[in-house]
Design brief:
Layout (H helix, E strand, L loop, with lengths): L5 H7 L2 H19 L2 E4 L2 H10 L8 E5 L26 H8 L3 E6 L33 H8 L4 E6 L5 H7 L2 E4 L19 E6 L2 H11 L13 H16 L9 E4 L1 H4 L4 H17 L2 E4 L8 H16 L17 H12 L2 H13 L9 H21 L2 E5 L24 H6 L3 E9 L2 E9 L4 H11 L14
Parallel strand pairs: 2-3, 7-8, 7-9
Antiparallel strand pairs: 1-3, 4-6, 5-6, 5-10, 9-11, 10-11
The chain binds glutamine.
């Protein structure tokens, strides 16, 4: 299929024809790279398209398997939910349906979104389409691969990098929205103070449109503010989608820290410095500044994420959802269901999270982490009063080989991506080229509700620092 924004393709083509071509692509990506946990039968999709109304009718979208879809299996990459069929749609799915978009299937992911390589899925790993010996990143690995391999858009979720890092590892765009921009109603919780649903896309225009659609207000999520910045930003998105808006690079100030960038693998940091030089030659105003102790973000993030995970996952006891191993005693039944239902990484986090929040330990880890979280946020907000964006690598290494980043040693891959989640700020991965034939990306962090600005800069950089038509399968 021709590679141009799908929101343009759909206007020029028959909806069923577009949908069937997309479906062929998804079948291929599933067969070759294990990108889907559930790919719906074509007959069901066709029925839904027949009934669908809206200007994007014909677009069928891969959705990460931790986003609830009415009547469609939603496993969260876990054995414990291997036969869970939600009785309702997440708000983002309801929004997509209003535009005629139909769910194509549910994409593979690290169990409960815990991981960054997709090796923690009960349904087997996903393979990187640029090189099958390497991981696709995670936890939204299936969604990123589905876009990279001749797709256009997909939904992921991002608690500490799960949209941006697999986007970087697959040479596509990935946006983690401002905390509270997109409803989390129907997203299966892992770390609720950190996470957001967001889009992965090939073209900026599609990224903008999906962001616009899924960010409609929802009274079911009390963390969604009726903020005027949010309303204005969404109006700007529409202006961009309809008319296109060009920018003057010299009006943008971008901060970076060489010290922070240089924690990355030298091949990655060299590439990032090349991108900085390129932006400089385009006219952007860049400055190397002291960003404080952002590397502290990684332990802070893991303490908070594990504390929240241990409480969120307490609901899986074999009683209400999913796998149930029967026993006479409740605790024996719950223990057995959990022992069989959860994988090793999830168990590790539940146990550590429970320890961290245990009476007597709170001050040692959890409260300290909350204080540092505040300090990191304050530092970033201070920098963002003077600068429009902060630039970092998206990940410190190119995609590792299978097995190389398993378990706690692999947490280092999240060094840069956890920072915006701790502060609730929006952040975008933009493809930045290749290291040894493997994709890497830059991360731009903006101020609250500056997704419109991130999108404008991404659109400017399209065809300048990255080529949205490049696919691992060739054109
Ligand atoms: N890799 C991080 C973690 O495992 C982030 C995952 C995510 O964003 N869901 O917690």
């Amino acid at each position: 299929m021709e590679l141009k924004p799908i929101i343009e393709l759909i206007k020029e083509n028959d909806p069923i024809e577009i949908a069937s071509k997309l479906y062929e692509t998804y079948k291929d990506v599933d067969y070759k790279f294990n990108a889907f946990i559930t790919l719906r039968p074509w007959e069901d999709i066709g029925e839904d398209i027949k009934k669908a109304r809206g200007e994007l009718r014909g677009i069928i979208i891969p959705v990460k398997d931790n986003i609830s879809t009415k009547g469609i299996l939603t496993t969260c990459g876990s054995r414990i939910l291997k036969n869970y069929i939600p009785p309702y749609d997440a708000t983002v799915i309801r929004h997509l349906k209003k535009y005629g978009i139909v769910v194509a299937g549910k994409t593979n992911m690290d169990e409960f979104a815990m991981g960054n390589t997709n090796e923690n899925s009960f349904y087997g790993p996903v393979y990187n389409p640029w090189n099958k010996d390497h991981v696709p990143g995670g936890s939204s690995g299936g969604s990123a691969v589905a876009v990279a391999y001749n797709g256009f858009i997909a939904l992921g979720s991002d608690t500490g990098g799960s949209i941006r890092q697999p986007a970087a590892y697959n040479y596509v765009l990935g946006l983690k929205p401002t905390y509270g921009l997109v409803s989390r109603h129907g997203l299966i919780s892992y770390g609720e103070s950190l996470e957001q649903i967001g889009p992965i896309a090939r073209f900026t225009k599609d990224l903008a449109y999906i962001t616009y659609i899924i960010s409609e207000y929802d009274e079911n999520d009390i963390t969604m503010p009726e903020d005027h910045r949010r309303v204005k930003m969404r109006e700007n998105l529409i202006r961009f989608i309809e008319k296109g808006v060009s920018i003057e690079p010299k009006t943008y100030r971008i901060a970076y820290s060489s010290k922070f960038i240089d924690y990355a693998d030298p091949m990655v940091s060299t590439k990032i410095h090349n991108v900085i030089d390129k932006l400089d030659s385009e006219g952007f105003k860049l400055e190397d500044i002291d960003l404080g102790y952002l590397e502290m973000g990684l332990p802070v993030y893991y303490i908070i994420a594990m504390a929240e995970a241990s409480s969120n996952l307490a609901r899986y006891d074999g009683t209400n959802y999913g796998l149930r191993i029967k026993a006479i005693d409740y605790w024996i039944a719950a223990g057995r269901s959990r022992a069989d239902g959860f994988g090793a990484e999830v168990k590790r986090r539940i146990i550590l999270g429970s320890l961290i929040t245990m009476k007597g330990y709170e001050n040692k880890y959890y409260i300290k982490a909350l204080r540092l979280r505040r300090a990191i946020r304050d530092k970033l907000i201070q920098v963002l009063t003077k600068f429009d964006f902060i630039l970092t690598p998206t990940a410190p290494t190119p995609p590792p080989k299978f097995g190389e980043a398993l378990g706690p040693e692999g947490y280092i891959l999240d060094l840069y991506t956890v920072i915006p989640n701790l502060a609730g700020l929006p952040a975008l991965n933009i493809p930045a080229g290749f290291v040894n034939g493997l994709p890497i990306g830059i991360q731009l962090i903006g101020n609250y509700f500056s997704e419109d600005e991130l999108i404008l800069i991404s659109s400017y950089l399209e065809d300048k620092i990255y080529n949205p038509r490049m696919t691992p399968g060739g054109d």
